[in-house]
Structure formats: C-alpha cells, structure tokens
Amino acid sequence: MSVWTLGVIGGSGLYQVGSSAAGRWVEARSPWGEASDELFLTEWEGCRVVFLPRHGRGHRLSPSEINFRANIDVLKRAGCTDILSVSACGSLREDYRPGDFVLVDQFIDRTRSRPASFFGDGVVAHVSMAEPVSRRLGEVVIDAAKEVGVRLHQSGTYLAMEGPQFSTRAESRLYRSWGADVIGMTNMPEARLAREAELPYAAIAMVTDYDAWREEERGVEVSDVSQLLSSNAEFARSLLRRAASHLVARPRTPDPQGIDTCLDGAVLTSEPRLTPEGRRRLEAVAGRRFASLYAIKPPGFSPASS
Fold first, then answer.
1. Of 79, 143, 147, 241, which residue is the least packed, with the fewest Cβ within 10 Å?
2. DSSP 145-198
3. Of residues 100, 105, 211, 260, which has the active-site annotation?
C-alpha cells in the first residue's frame, strides 16, 4: 500500500504546527462548503502531514459554526490515510487533572444543530460506531506519550455538548452519572464523519479544567481554559510529532478494524440510483465504494523538510 499521510486537526490553542519554512498552506475546496481554513502541508520524520486548524487561524469559528463535513472532505481529498484530532476538554473525574491528556475511546453525542452525515438526499448508508476510534492510532499515541513524558490516560469517554456556553452544574453532574470522563464541544460529529469517509481516527483531549461539577469551586471560565492552552499546545505538538514517527515506522497495511473499507457493507443505495449531484458530493468520501465515481486527485505534496 502507499505511504502514510497523517491528517492533524488542531483544536483550541493549536492553530499551527510549524513555520512557513517547514511547509506550505494550500487552498482547500469541498462540495460541502468552506473548510475551517487552508491546509498546512509538511513532513515529520518522513511522515506526510496535513494540518487543519479546526477553529481557523485566529480562532474565528465557534464549535457550532465549524463545517465538519467540509473539514473531513478536504482532508480525504488531500490524501490523508488517518486522522489525529486534538482538542481542549473539561474533566468529569477527579483523577483526570488539568494538564493531563486523555486518549478518547468512546463518545456520547449531545450536539443538536450540526449536520452529522455525508449521506442522505438520495444516498443511504449506515456505518458502525461501536468502536469509534482507531486502535492502531491509539497504540501509536500511547508509545509517543511515553517518550514525550506527558501524562496520558489511555481510555476515556468524551461527552460532546453543543455549546458555546459551558455546562450548568446540573448538567455536569448528570454527565458524570452517565459515566462520561471528559467534556468538550468539537469531537462530534467529527468522529462520525471520519468513519463515513473510511478514515481511521483517534482523539487526544487536553484537560484544561474541571467543568462545573465541583460544588466547592466556581464553574469553568474561559480564563481557566486559556491558562493551560499554551503549555498544553506545546506538549501536543511534541506528542503529535512523535506519534507521526511511530506511525511511519509501521508498514501501511489494511486497517485491522476494517475502518478503511467500512462502506462496503454500509451503503444501501444502488449505484444506478445515484444522481450526478450525489456523485459529485461523495466523490472523495465514498469514491472507493462507487467504482464509477471520479478519481480522487489530491493536491501536489512537496513541502520543505521540517
């Protein structure tokens, strides 16, 4: 199989992963609308990297304004084979402390105003989300964390809330009772869409606060989050670079969970029923599944060495 190309989605505080001398920004176009920003193409330890700041450079987009479909679509068009997502989060557990990192392995989706699928409008597909993240990518992150020296919890359930307001105390207590470990506003529907695009996905959550469940403390404020973002972002960059080096050291073989072929049994609509508009929209995310769709031609990739 071809070489690895790692897509990196940066959350709050992580708006760039290298200087312009180490890569280049390229325009990203999608039939799903405007992505959060241009794509930054670079290379780490021999691994191709495509970086997208989720909120845009300068943090222009609130969680509910992010065009998640366009973001995943442009990463797939850029040739990404896998995606690592980084985001800030609140902790719903005493032992997941501010400054810690969490490797998310499950989600509870409480978002309500975001398009959550590439399918519909005449094309029906149902992918499995029982195991929503890539175990192989998770192993890479765990190995990298040991080398970088960050405190990484190797499991966690992420509750995705709509926002942009933070939780009430009652909501925070409720989410704890559900078994959620961390809370954030951006990993859904991102993880769902990555799965529909047959992209192995893993999420690294950076704990910045204790949300609102601690009765003896005031609720979370933006100032609390901001205090940890700078230091966490630097640790995140180091963790991502090491993860890329571990990934590229592995031979690129089919995903052991079948993520890269998950549409084979998921699409119910027969190809003759596809409209020209449906074909155009799905040419990147489902092009492998529908043999007659246009070939994907990712943009040229020739960044300077990092």
1. 147
2. HHHHT--EES--EEEEE--SSPPPHHHHHHHHHTT--EEESSSTTHHHHHHHTT
3. 211
209, 224, 260, 264: the catalytic one is 209
- Confirm whether 105 is a catalytic residue: no
Residue 295 token pair: 């070939």
Domains recognised in the chain with CATH numbers: 84-281 (3.40.50.1580)
* CA–CA distance, 79 with 47 (Å, rounded to integer): 12
- Contact assessment for residue 243 and residue 138, using Cβ atoms and an 8 Å cutoff: no
pLDDT digits (tens, 9 = 90+) for 165-189: 999 999 999 999 999 999 999 999 9
- Produce one character per residue of 71-81: b if its CB has 16 or more CB atoms within 10 Å, e if not: bbbbbbbbbbb
Instruction: Tally helices (H) and strands (E) across the chain.
Output: 6, 11
- 């940890």: which residue's tokens? 228
100 assigned to active site: no
The encoded tokens of residue 293 equal: 């769709």
Residue that the structure tokens 């199989």 belong to: 1
Tokens of 205: 């959550």
What is the value of pTM for the model shown? 0.92
**Model confidence over 211-269: pLDDT tens digits?**
999 987 666 666 666 667 777 888 899 999 999 999 999 999 999 999 999 999 898 88
- Residue among 30, 22, 15, 43 nearest 301 (CA): 43
